[in-house]
Amino acid sequence: MNNFETTLENLTSFIQAYDDISLNDGENLNYLLQKINTTLFYLESERSIFKKKYEQRIYELTTDKKMTVSRAVNFAEVEVPELYMLRRILESGYRCSDSIRTNISFLKNERNNSR
């Protein structure tokens, strides 16, 4: 298993841990937020690599094979499926990160209002 697949599994385990954790546990929420955000950062660098492959393939198909751009895009999407997959995973990861951030913010407000 390569580093990319391991990172995807780690992200999945962090999100599952968030699902299982008490929303009143600010310390663990903060830990999970840190882990999810650093994992998303790494996946963004992977996405840029796949995006480069995708764009390169479109360029090759339109210049060498004389395909139309729309047809080349269709071919490139089939040849580089990781790009679409990463887009979806990153979008979900960022939504989860936003949710954790909101929970932490709520906990801070509750703590400050209870004083």
Describe what this molecule looks like in 3D.
By secondary structure, this protein is an all-alpha fold. The protein has one domain. It contains 4 helices and no strands. The mean pLDDT is 95.
List its salient traits.
single chain; 115 residues; mainly alpha; 4 helices; 87% helix; elongated
Secondary structure: number of strands: 0
Count every helix, treating DSSP H or I runs of 4 or more residues as helices. 4
Give the overall shape, derived from the CA principal axes: elongated
**Residues in helix, %:** over 70%
Which whole number gives the mean pLDDT? 95
CA radius of gyration is 19 Å
Tell me the structural class: mainly alpha
Q: Total domains, how many?
A: 1
Biggest beta-sheet profile: none
Order of helices and strands: HHHH
Distance between the termini: 50 Å
| Low-confidence sequence ranges | none
Strand portion: under 5%
